[in-house]
Amino acid sequence: MSTERGSKKRKTRSGCSGIELASAFHVLQKFRDKIKTEDLVEPDDSNLESVELDMEIDEDALAQLDSLLEWMDSKIKRTKKSRAFSSANSTLVSDIQITEGPPLSLKDDVAQRVDAARLAGADHFMTSGNMHKLLDMLLRLVARPSEASARTWVDAFLYRASAMLPPTKQMVLNVEYNVSPVSVPTASGSEVILVGFIDYTVVVTNDVKIARELCYIYLSCSHFL
Question: pLDDT tens digits, residue range 120-150?
Fold first, then answer.
């Protein structure tokens, strides 16, 4: 029975969370930095506090403190935080070292491009005129209190984009693609696990066979989920 109790004690782990560990590390690191600063000051009558500090803390204690700080730092960096794609913000994007690209700007021949875009897909169901009719219907039909409502508008633009493709290309659209957990390194040296759903994935291909296979795969996956 004593052996069983001992094994249970050995399995006991600290309940310290990642936030608590980081806070403790911050406090101890500030204390260690203060000691280093005090060590650089020559002891004299006007600096009695530094003399008392140097006398009370020996080299062995400092070595143990440095070892503890090193362990805590490695523990914090090894800790993997899970983040859902839906909760991604600018701080997370910056931490995983994704930078913004250059701003978009209209080309000089924008008027000609607009006219060409209106004519694209003229023989398709989702013509430019039909897309505007659909958007007008959505404006009068769909309430807009949530992100889910906005997807009806996004869908319309994606349908129109598929109709504007050249005849040699085909688009495969997948909604709410389930992404398996993937570990991504951060700028601070730790790792973050990204998991969740991506609202849309779009694949454009020249191969009709590949497009059909992708549609079949997506439909099969949604059937088993």
Answer: 999 999 999 999 999 999 999 998 778 788 8
